């Protein structure tokens, strides 16, 4: 029974690899679809890596047929890692076109503005005693 389950899990892994590769290869190549493509690619690679790590852990267990849930757990953790990586790649890293436009326009990173108006609570021995408002006209 354990050999049969192991054979089915290998077939499932191979089917998942083939389908994810086909999905990535058949993705249309359009400039507007690149962020979605990058996100799906990172999620697919995360699932693939997690599945492989989960399957590799079966080699270290006494009864691999009883611990097939480790493969699914590895795929799940890989998916979470792929989602985080995909969000970072899509929203955190500027692409080459954005960087070229920023350079062309002379865009420079700016520091946050200094606050002029500050509203803060006044807390004393008995708790909240009131509020304080201050406005900075000139700093030197």
Outline the structure in words.
With 140 residues, the protein is of the alpha+beta class. It has one domain. The chain has four helices and two strands, in the order ααααββ. Strands 1-2 form a two-stranded antiparallel sheet. A hairpin with a 2-residue loop joins strand 1 (117-124) and strand 2. The longest helix is centred in the first third of the chain and has 24 residues, at 2-25. It is elongated, with a radius of gyration of 27 Å.
Helix/strand layout:
Layout: H1 2-25, H2 34-57, H3 69-92, H4 96-105, E1 117-124, E2 127-135
Antiparallel strand pairs: 1-2
Helix pairs in contact: 1-2, 2-3
Keywords, separated by commas or semicolons:
single chain; 140 residues; alpha+beta; two-stranded antiparallel ribbon; 4 helices; 2 strands; 59% helix; elongated
Summary, kept brief:
This protein has helices spanning 2-25, 34-57, 69-92, 96-105; strands spanning 117-124, 127-135.
Radius of gyration: 27 Å
Number of helices: 4
Helix content: 55-70%
Question: First CA to last CA: what distance?
Answer: 80 Å
Tell me the series of helices and strands, N- to C-terminal. HHHHEE
Query: What structural class is derived from the secondary structure elements?
Result: alpha+beta
Largest sheet, if any? 2 strands, antiparallel
Strand order of the largest sheet: 1-2
Portion of residues in beta strands equals: 5-15%
Shape: elongated
DSSP strand tally: 2
The unreliable regions are none
Mean pLDDT: 78
Structurally, the number of domains stands at 1
Quaternary state of this entry equals single chain
